[in-house]
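## Example record

The block below lists the input lines for one assembly entry, exactly as stored, with component labels intact.
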Amino acid sequence: AQKVTQAQTEISVVEKEDVTLDCVYETRDTTYYLFWYKQPPSGELVFLIRRNSFDEQNEISGRYSWNFQKSTSSFNFTITASQVVDSAVYFCALRVYGGSQGNLIFGKGTKLSVKP
Amino acid sequence: EAGVAQSPRYKIIEKRQSVAFWCNPISGHATLYWYQQILGQGPKLLIQFQNNGVVDDSQLPKDRFSAERLKGVDSTLKIQPAKLEDSAVYLCASSLGGQGYNEQFFGPGTRLTVL
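Predicted structure tokens for the full assembly:
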């Protein structure tokens, strides 16, 4: 069975602080995909990144960076120099490769509050 | 490019009433998903369509929930009769295809409150 755990329910930081959101996943499949989504108060899930299980290279996009480590089954997300606009709920999700089924398994999310 | 459209955005009903939600996916996207997101949790897949066929409805409570995508484009999700525990946000998403690497694009959701 697949599972995604986001142990941090809520995080509060002051603007310009760095913050890391943790994600631990479980799957027996060797081919899978990991995702991060942002859900602002408006409710729409916004795609941030996709990683496949064969690509452990870390990625940086502006103030965002992701650290994928298969050895610890983790896919952590760091925001550098946080801003108030980063306030949202962030979801980590897992999807296995098999067939045409596209079931995204989501964690429970981490609510990030960035205070000015 | 227009995103995934959903309506209504909000709905309040009494328990045992019926309700329907509508979704129009991104043009050209063959795969459409309905997710249920209960407050404080991540979304959970209810049903996945590939064109107008059902690929996965294993988590759909079929005694009260139904969904259709008759012409392989827009879709409706219906609850009849609604229960208190159905209060949630119902998210529609679409993707080019159903394989794991395909990015899913989400609509703004319909927030359902059952009193």
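The interface with chain A takes residues 31, 33, 35, 40-45, 48, 50, 55-56, 89, 91, 93, 95, 97-109, 111 of chain B (CB under 8 Å). The mean pLDDT of chain B is 93.
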